[in-house]
Amino acid sequence: MYEKQILQLVTQEQYKKPLQTDFYNLAIAYKKINKPDSALHYALKTIELSDTVKSDINHHYYITAAQIATDLQLWKLSSDNYKHAYNILSGNIDKVKSTHILELEKKYNLTEAENKVLHFKNQTYLLAGLILILLLIFIALFLYQIKQKQIKMLIVERNKLLEREKEMLHEKQANLLDDNIKKAQELLNKQLVLSFFQQISMQNLEMKNFLYDLKINPYIVENTVIYEKISKECDSFQRKTTISNSSLFSDSKLTTLTGISAEDILKLNKSEKLLLLLLTVGVDNTGMAVLFNTTADSIRNRKSQLKKKLNQYQIQLNQPINE
Using CA atoms, how far apart are residues 71 and 81, in angstroms rounded to an integer? Predict the structure, then answer.
């Protein structure tokens, strides 16, 4: 009854695979309890389902049936099952080989494709590297040209600057030569003027002495009219021959020449202003002695006193006072 129900299920496709496993398990179980006939029966049932149920272990079913047939000394049946097992196993081996071959071919094709992709990438990288190198060379050449232009411009500017400096040097030398000529001319003029001043001063001194001698002459003193007239002329001559800075330079011009402020100028008397003016224009002690109708030693004393006064009031000059 139970077996009939099982055989009915064999016709249904969804039960074939589980039934094949059950038949095989029954065959193994009967074989273990030493019932080879029942074991062979279910082994053959398992083989019958092998034609419709494809499995990688179908060769085991044939080997089991062959072993049971051998135990029953059914040699032909055993031989046939071994042949089927061999054929299935060979087919499985061929299938595995084919599968491995296909996998190897796939791997080879994949490797070849990867190699092609890698080769393409390498070519791309190489091309990009070459482009980058060419770009760098172009940039380097461009920067080099710019640098060369800058160097040329700097050389041109330097040459212009050197020419300008050369012209300025020539101009400076010419101006220096002109200044030297002017200074020599001014010195000559000063010497000439001083010589004239000296002659005039000597004449004035002689005239003063002459008038003074007439003024103290006993004979003239007794003659009142002549004495008054000579005294008047002597005083007038004395006033006219006295040098005054107001007749030469104003205080504003003296400020410009010496650098002394207008407030400090007021602290000096006429004689000190005149002495300071002569010092500024470069008149030496001998020349000032002639102009002041005195000696060089007296001029030195006056300069020393002027220097003390300037230090006392903290008055600064453009140039120091030399003894």
Answer: 13
Q: How confident is the model at residue 202 (pLDDT cuts 50, 70, 90)?
A: low
Q: Give 316 or 5, the one with higher predicted confidence.
A: 316
As a whole number, mean pLDDT of residues 32-46 equals 81
Hey, what CATH topology would domain 2-110 get? 1.25.40
Query: Phi and psi for 4 in degrees, rounded to 5?
Result: -60, -40
Query: What CA–CA distances, in Å, run from 319 to 257, 296, 315?
Result: 10, 21, 12
195 CA to centre of own chain: 69
Share of residues in the chain with pLDDT > 90 (%): 1
Rounded CA-CA distance 77/83 in Å is 10
Give one word for 268, left, alpha or beta, with left for phi > 0 and alpha for psi -120 to 50: beta
Burial class (CB in 10 A: 0-12, 13-18, 19+), 161: exposed
What letter does residue 34 receive in the DSSP assignment?
T
Q: Rounded CA gap, 200 and 292, in Å?
A: 12
Asked if 73 and 43 count as a contact pair (C-beta separation under 8 A), the reply is no
3-state helix, strand, coil in the chain (%, to 5): 85, 0, 15
pLDDT value, residue 301: 92
List, as own/partner pairs, every contact residues 277-281 make where C-beta atoms lie below 8 angstroms and the sequence separation is at least 24, other chains included: 277/245, 277/248, 277/249, 279/303, 279/321, 280/254, 280/318, 280/319, 281/257
Give the integer Cα–Cα distance in Å for 253 and 269: 16
Q: What is the mean pLDDT of the chain?
A: 75
pLDDT exceeds 50 at position 246? no
| CA–CA dist 75, 46 (Å, integer) | 19
Instruction: Let me know: does 321 contact 279? Beta carbons within 8 Å.
Output: yes
Ranges of each domain in the chain: 2-110, 244-323
